[in-house]
Amino acid sequence: MILLETVVHDLRYGIRMLSRNAGGTVVTVFALAIGIGINTAVFTAYKAMVARPLDARAPAEMVNVALVRDSGATDYTFSYPDYEAFRDSVHSFSGLIAFRPDRVTLSNAGGMNSQGTRRLGLLRPGASNTEFVNVFVVSENYFKVLGVKALQGRTFESISIPDLLASPPVLISESYWQRRFARDPAMLGKTIYLNSLAVTVIGITPRDFVGTGVGSPTFCLPISIEPLIHADDQWLRNRENQRYRLFGRLASGSGIGQAKAEMSPIADRLRTLHDPKSEAAKPVAVLVWPGSPFPLPLKNYGGLTLSILLIMAAAGMVLAVACANVGSLQLARARSRQNELHTRLSLGASRLRVIRQLVTESSLVGVLAGVLALLFTWAFLKVAVILTTNALPAEYGTLVFDVTPDFQIFAYVFAVSLVAGMLSGLAPAMESSRSALSSNSRAGTSPLPSRRLQDVLVAAQVAFSLVLMIAGSMAIRSSIKSLNMDTGYESKHVINLDFQFAESSKYTAVRKLALVHELRTRLAALPGVAAITSARPPGDSRFRTAAENAQPTLHYAYVQANYFQTLGIPLFLGRGFQSQAGQPEQSIILSESAAKQLWPGQNPIGRSLRLGPTDERSHNRSELVATGPAYQVVGVVRDTRGAEFDGSDSKRVYLPLAEDRVQDYSILIRTKSDAAQVMRAIDPVISSIDSSMMTTSSTLEELLHQSPPFIVSSIAAGVASTVGLLGLLLALMGIYGTVGYIVVLRTREVGIRMAIGAQKRDVLGLILRESARPVLAGLIAGILLAAGASYLARGLLYGLNGVDGLSFAGVSLMFLTIALLASYPPARRATRVDPMVALRYE
């Protein structure tokens, strides 16, 4: 009871003292709020993006399921027959669900077509208000196992399979219902067309429902109607059609270990039912881990883990700078309270009691800063999420990130605020109480131990801030280099025209081929078009192949004979592909780096190479697969850069594309001048040929800049530079405030120096030299820390290897200049002191 009364008394006294110095309190609260806010934002973003649970009731009971092959490869997708076997045999789960995202066409839906400016390049929807939509294909028990009910209507589990097939149903998302149909109450029971299949809306999912994904789907489809959606009777029967991710809910009393033990013999039996030549037939181990929308455990994402650690370290540095900032300000301010503290000690208060009082005041500052940081961070993240999701291409779907503070975030902010407040005030409290014990303590002196502590705090601020500034500079330079990278091909004047036909019986292979040939002929006649070819864009690095000779992994692409001329890729050795009708020649062309890896120091022309896909499941049904016979190397071309910053997708194998397969590949259009003008002319051509054809168009440069690595690089540059600038701001606030307080406290000393003949320039030089000493020490320490950080992050920065001299030298010089400028105004004020007034200063 006595302790509680003492704490209450300390709080009341602390509030009075803080209110008496309102200006200083506002500065310290603001400085600490910056550090706490950055850490709160990082923690909230981590919870919302990385450590997010599944969108389900009691998400802690949900688990992911995957298989690990002897080779170390992880399979996280399963065929429908394998799913059925696990679902019906594993009793450690109260329910097992199958899920996969897909993209289909929506037509005859009415409402307002929502396909908008977020799409990459120029989108041309088809007739009947047709557009692409992202959907979830789910097992019929999906919503039941997740424990999620429809906002309106019903879900699939109550409908029998024959009824599902007789009258295919779908669920529509609440956000799409509002955006496209203005919450039309007649939506339930409405018939729409997905891939030309008539389906009926039977329910509406809850707002921002993401289930086992990270984005809100437009529609949810039952898995049993997929054969109808894709016009393939064998879709669910083919054991090699491995497309579905599995999630389970643990039964009461069951654990992850029990589930793995029960699944292992089933997985071993199922692999014997697969094609003996396939990867799925190899020995496996079962992998079960806590439910997450990520297809693999987070520890498997090495680059992501390192990025998270670096971001957390940066946030910790900002908080350390803020604490050192507040500590140095409180230390300087505490000297003006020496008479008060000395009096309290003289009246019988113990040093521990005085320290506790001062730490209580700093803790109050921390809590106030935490409240301010939480409010600002919440508002900032809300806006950031909206801007980010709207800026991303529609191919990414409607991403949902919940940044609303919950109990964990409140607890985190309170703990960080309390600890930050106590840490920032502990050293000043101990030092000021020690100084107050001296009977000759005066408000106008500045003891040497106190100055040393002050210098240490300033140096710490400078060191951590410099690391953040250098990191921000390197991230910006990396982003600029990535945007200006030499791709090895013409990217600004080549348009990628991607198209899709409705999955309808009228679009036979022959009809598709005829339409594409007509489209190519009409496009070639447009003004401004220089050449046309068919292939996947160079930045498309989805497909890889293993060369059986040396077993390297290479990227490959099927291209037409004029591909290299159209994209301006020079031929270094041998010849190009020969244009011919019928089946193409059994030849390949290698990129420089691929040729060097396969036959270092040798001429590859005329050599044979046998290829095999690393994973056929990554291909669409229409994609050609690089496997089978041996191919003869006929040429070597210049390396092209894809989306990967490490250049791994520069090692490429090019195969000739047969004329009867061009309908399955994008059309690449080389323009003579303005690509945007040609893109505008494409729309009427497509409408006149087939108004139902769905197309997207963009330059290869735009396509590359919208790839995930480039987007991540740009975001990283923005985040790193913002954090670095905040660190610089905090450090400058600390330097300015500290020097200002020191000047005030050394007024008497300055007066004595000037009274005995010191010139103004001498006083100015003295204060600037003493101010620069901790700054220089901090710069040296910061450079060493930044060198270590840049070494750790070397794989995340494009075009920067290790220490970037420009960033280190430029930022350090800039920081020193700004720090001296921050010290100059208070130092200048010291030279204007009247010596007679200073000598009477108490």
Provide a descriptive summary of the structure in words.
Helix content is 48%, strand content 17%. With 842 residues, it is of the alpha+beta class. Strands 3-5-11-7-9-8 form a six-stranded mixed beta barrel. A six-stranded mixed β-barrel has the order 17-18-23-20-22-21. The model is unreliable at 115-128 and 439-445 (pLDDT under 50).
Q: Determine Rg (CA atoms, Å).
A: 33 Å
State the distance separating the first and last CA atoms. Answer: 41 Å
Query: Mind describing the biggest β-sheet?
Result: 6 strands, mixed, barrel
- How are strands sequenced across the largest beta sheet? 3-5-11-7-9-8
Mean pLDDT over the residues = 80
Beta-strand content estimate: 15-25%
What's the arrangement of secondary structure elements?
Elements lengths: L1 H19 L1 H29 L11 E8 L4 E2 L4 H10 L3 E15 L14 E3 L6 E8 L3 H5 L5 E2 L7 H6 L2 E5 H8 L9 E4 L2 E9 L9 E2 L2 E4 L3 H4 L15 E6 L5 H16 L12 E7 L11 H34 L2 H9 L4 H41 L6 E2 L7 H30 L11 H36 L10 E7 L8 H16 L4 E6 L9 E4 L5 E7 L3 H5 L3 E4 L12 E5 H7 L9 E6 L16 E8 L14 E5 L10 E5 L3 H15 L4 E6 H6 L2 H38 L1 H9 L4 H33 L12 H26 L4 H5 L3
Parallel strand pairs: 5-11, 7-9, 18-23, 20-22
Antiparallel strand pairs: 1-2, 1-12, 1-13, 3-5, 3-8, 3-12, 4-25, 6-9, 7-11, 8-9, 10-14, 15-24, 15-25, 16-24, 17-18, 17-21, 19-22, 20-23, 21-22
List keywords for this structure.
alpha+beta, 6-stranded mixed β-barrel, 23 helices
Would you summarize the structure shown here?
With 842 residues, this protein is of the alpha+beta class. The chain contains 23 helices and 25 strands. Helix 9 (302-335) runs antiparallel to helix 13.
